[in-house]
Here is the input.
Amino acid sequence: MSIDAAQVGQIAHLARLAVDEQESEAHARNLSDILAFVDRLAEVDSKDVEPMAHPLEMTQRLRPDQVSEPNERERFQALAPSVSDGCYLVPRVIE
Amino acid sequence: MQWEAVIGLELHAQLATKTKIFSGAATAYGAEPNVQACAIDLGMPGVLPVLNERAVRYAVRLGLALDAEVAGRSVFARKNYFYPDLPKGYQISQYELPVVGQGHLDIDLEDGSIKRIGVTRAHLEEDAGKSLHEGFVGMSGIDLNRAGTPLLEIVSEPDLRSAREAVAYMKKMHALVRYLEICDGNMQEGSFRCDANVSVRPVGTEKFGTRTEIKNLNSFRFVDRAINYEIERQIEVLEAGGEIVQETRLFDSDRGETRPMRSKEEANDYRYFPDPDLLPLEIDSAFIDEVRAELPELPDVRRQRFVEQYGLSNYDAGVLTASRELADFFEIVAAQADAKLAANWVMGDFSAALNRTGVELNTSPISAQALGALVARITDNTISGKIAKEVFEVMWETGQEADAIIAERGLEQVTDAGAIEAVIDEVIAANPGQLEQYRAGKTKLMGFFVGQTMKASGGKANPQQVNEILKRKLDG
Amino acid sequence: MHDRTIAELSAALQKGDCSSVELVSATLKAIEDAEALNAFITVLPEQALEAAAKADQLRAKGQAGPLTGIPIAHKDIFCTHDVRTSCASRMLDNFAPPYDAFVVEQLQAAGTICVGKTNMDEFAMGSSNETSWYGPVRNPWDQTRVPGGSSGGSAAAVAARLVPAATGTDTGGSIRQPAALTGICGLKPTYGRISRYGMIAFASSLDQAGPMATTAEDLAMMLQAMAGFDSRDSTCVDQPVPNYQQALKPGALKGLRVGLPKEYFNAEGVAPGVQAAMEAAITTMREAGAELVEISLPNTELAVPVYYVIAPAEASSNLSRFDGVRYGYRCENPVDLEDLYKRSRGEGFGEEVKRRIMIGTYALSAGYFDAYYLKAQQVRRMIRDDFTRAFADVDVIAGPTAPSTAFSVGEKSDDPVQMYLSDIFTIAVNLAGLPALSIPAGLDNGLPVGLQLIGQYFDEGRLLAAAHDFQQHSDWHTRRPAMDR
Here is the structure.
């Protein structure tokens, strides 16, 4: 599988990464190399093998429904680039 | 051409847990922005989700109530997209293996028949936060209190054929989640919301038309209006030779129309994959049995019981079991008085008073006990139905008990035949002309004499006795 | 005191030969002197000295444990309360979390003193420590060479004897490969043995924290403190923590069935010097009584391609939270929301991180999911099954940790695939979730070679015992780089 600069643009958009034209070319080359390397998986016969999402054959543990987290808004928002009236600010959202 | 609508609903029920689905932060509604958003809800680096037991329990409750298969193994997946109200850049949801599989819900149609609506699945997921647009110049404010609130998304089959059916289905599901006490059903607060998938096709054809999705409908009325608008719009487009664009639309309630959502124009590629921070959820039969044991009587079962136990019509039983609170209320009233009379009062004067004043059942000034006591006084002939209405009004205004009002105001019905006879004698004596006409054959004047007698007794005379005695005296 | 192990320092503190304040002061001085290594992103002199004074007080009251007052360093991927936790990224250059990672809590509770946060590959993505926003780390054995990665700062700091031990994380070899390249010991425990809470995620189904130190015994002491159950991590295993030091029995190699995968020894690209060191290490083990069994792990060469689908896929999603809204880097004057996202992330992340996010995004996207992600998950199971079969016949599996010794700074940075291949022997272990460690086992042209031992799930005790016994029969672990002080 080979990737061109236009596809890099699409992927970068999905991943919300600003990538300029020059970078796109380099990324296209690198990503194509990596995909070519990864493509050897296509030759593996994995018919009937159950996909393995996790190394542990364990199941999800459940948490009791008890409030354990106090309000720490001030501490968290001290880390934020832009806040006002208790809200995180972003450029206007259009719905 | 004749068109037929094909509608499927995705209902989102916020589960009534104390804490978030994956964190120990509180879920209470109406808090100051971001005070109920902990590190996990904020998507801080390094913190991890742990699943809330009660959210799972509630999902299983719904599964059992819909007669659906509860999955022995279900998987949480990440739905990846960027949006400011989605702090992690992905929503934890269930994709390929939901916790609740195929089920169904029966709805009543206008013509009295019952239609079975298929439920495709119900899955657990986390809610997003909110973007606030007012009060920030050129900016939006993000409040993540709601982020991580547990949601159960209930997806119907495209079995609905009109806005009316869609609303009936949604109302039935709304009643059910409240019966099950898994969702408070508060639609203003967004606890129960609806996305509607709508398409139209020529009557008699099988193939579905292109559908649009109307997002975030938060009242039954909006669902009705939005779907009707959308059906009309699609028919107009198709009849003009146009094509329906598959898209997400929003309902503008002020203008009563749907319009495309600007922000989601681009085709989304959500890149679902199993969330590696969570393990498969396994639900064993012991857990299911435990949940089954705590299920309340379900609405359809209760309705049938009301018909059998109280001798109510199927329709009345349906009205009274439409919500768990109303059915509970009725049963308390009926325990003290004649059941049919109780039903008439609950559905009649009492419901009318709620509607008139906009009061919710749980904050009504008249408790079920108190209404039962009032109806009991009719059943035992202490007061007439007419007087009862007066007493009811006073109860509603003052919150006083029926017996206290009856005693204080001397409203007790007169059943002493001698006393009634004395009043009648006075009435007859005072109206010799009418008596003559009556005896000449104008028997319609009976009503006049009854009215005069009741008036003279201050409405307290037992109407049945008044009738009997009057007839005997006038005919004599 | 710079060459001393934790065990020795612990004894010296206990005897009163030195105080923790002295120890920490000397450590801080050594870190300062070795600035050229660029091993640390943040040094915490005041905090460390204050903690050392408290540790000395505890000791005076007779309340000291074996690790009380021992200076250590944390990889800058572990959240430290009110202390910058950068993950070596511009994205988090200004980030000081209001919470500690589980590993940080555990080691603090055990009495260790954190003297600083070590440099690493950005978001742990790299095998050479060249992707750090704070610049590359230098290998103390030869400063023109890389220390390996991603836990390169921790490795360099321990190798240069700046600290007796440090924490690391291992997603595809990030503890073991730098341990090998800098001549120290590093353990990646079983997936789930140590809570991931507060450890900034790279690939959640592969990431595991572990210790780095100069001896197997010190690894055991560190693991003892780090392991434990934590309800905040759903993937953490609720299993009792054995006594790892008691497990270090003399003669552990005697009768131990050691599997030698043919794919690890005749592999293309393994440097002759590494091969020679392995043969010598095998001889040492045999002489110590180990029973050597040739085994096969037929899917070995598929591990790297599988990893480079799964790890970037998980990473692409894990790193979506860095969006310039709630914390971390935010671009100047975003014109709209999309611009805020794209430039904050475009400017906040380095090239390798962006590359992996894009690979992962691609592998998960519509139309490619089955061919890449699902396929990789299937082959992942095949790789795990290889190990399951092998462990029917052997107790541990041995082989080289890395195919070569430390390479030069810049040598592989333009060729991602070549870089990825330096993890060929370590990656399969993460895919399977098994424990493994690397210990020094020779020198090739004056550069360290690492021996990897892979164990069964939760069999860290046996691995540590084997490594400890190996160190009773060899002195490679005592070799240290000649550094000017």
In short: The two ends of chain C are 13 Å apart (CA to CA). Chain C has one domain: 1-485.
